[in-house]
Write a structure and sequence with these properties.
By secondary structure, the protein is of the alpha+beta class. It folds into two domains: 1-71 and 86-93 and 179-241, no CATH class; 101-166, no CATH class. 52% of the residues lie in helices and 17% in strands. The chain is built from eleven helices and seven strands. It has helices spanning 10-20, 25-36, 42-46, 50-65, 88-91, 118-124, 130-141, 153-166, 191-217, 221-226, 229-240, and strands at 68-74, 81-87, 101-106, 109-114, 142-145, 172-177, 184-189. The strands form three sheets. A three-stranded antiparallel sheet has the order 3-4-5. The protein has a two-stranded antiparallel sheet with strand order 1-2. Strands 6-7 form a two-stranded antiparallel sheet. Helix 1 (10-20) crosses helix 9 and helix 2 (25-36) crosses helix 4. The model has no long low-confidence stretch (mean pLDDT 90).
Length: 241
């Protein structure tokens, strides 16, 4: 997918937020990408591997809000809220992996598989528990195997490890050390949810700005959003004075 990402205008931020509010988180990720990927269909974006999808989300986040971000995690031992910096530009891997077939060998048996996409995740979210969801995902992504249809648990674990090794961007792990009690732990960083929360905050801020300036000057939403960000802030400061 050669098309470069494009930043989101204030109008697009509002449109993305309004369109994604009632969507499942998988669909929200695609809604975000579609807004920043003109000329690329939603179906094409859903065909990306999860790692490639997340790499593009990291790139888009960097374009829209810059590379620096701040996240928060709660210590599982003492409950202290830990703040941590995030560099979305550094987290994004530049190479986009294709969802082509890969192969592993287990006990002399070769298994061909492909990397999961958003299409696959959409099919497994309804699974009653994580174990069955993983099994459904493996069943969808195994292309060829001489093993029985019901793959043993050890094979599923091996395939899961091989998938993550082939698409490392799909699982970003951040390590923590609590400054209060010294507890160490790891957390999965979900860029799709993190970026969506930021977009939602941006949209609500824009609505407050529109409301304040419309009341103060009688301008339309389009006129307000067409103002450069710094100019808009200057008028807001005058209104608040």
């Amino acid at each position: 997918m050669e098309q470069p990402m494009q930043p989101l205008s204030p109008e697009k931020i509002l449109a993305v937020w309004e369109g994604g509010r009632q969507q499942h988180e998988l669909d929200r990720a695609l809604t975000l990408l579609a807004a920043g990927s003109p000329g690329v269909s939603r179906h094409e974006l859903a065909d990306l591997t999860i790692g490639a999808r997340d790499a593009r989300l990291l790139q888009l986040r960097t374009l829209v809000l810059g590379p620096s971000a701040t996240g928060f995690a709660e210590c599982p031992e003492c409950g202290e809220r830990v703040e941590f910096p995030i560099d979305t530009a550094a987290l994004a891997q530049p190479k986009e992996l294709a969802a082509t077939a890969r192969e592993i060998e287990l006990d002399g048996t070769r298994i061909r598989f492909r990397l999961p996409t958003s299409h696959d995740l959409a099919e497994v979210v309804a699974a009653p528990d994580e174990a069955q969801g993983l099994r459904r995902l493996i069943d969808r992504c195994v292309i060829e195997s001489s093993l029985p249809d019901e793959l043993p648990n050890e094979t599923i674990k091996a395939l899961s490890r091989a998938t993550l090794e082939a698409d490392p961007q799909a699982e970003i792990i951040i390590s923590f050390s609590c400054p209060g009690c010294g507890q160490r732990w790891e957390m999965l960083f979900d860029i799709a949810q993190f970026f969506w929360d930021e977009i939602a905050a941006q949209a609500r801020r824009l609505l407050r700005e529109i409301d304040a300036l419309a009341h103060a000057y009688g301008w339309s939403e389009r006129e307000i959003l067409s103002l450069p960000t710094q100019r808009r802030q200057s008028y807001l400061e005058l209104v608040a004075a």
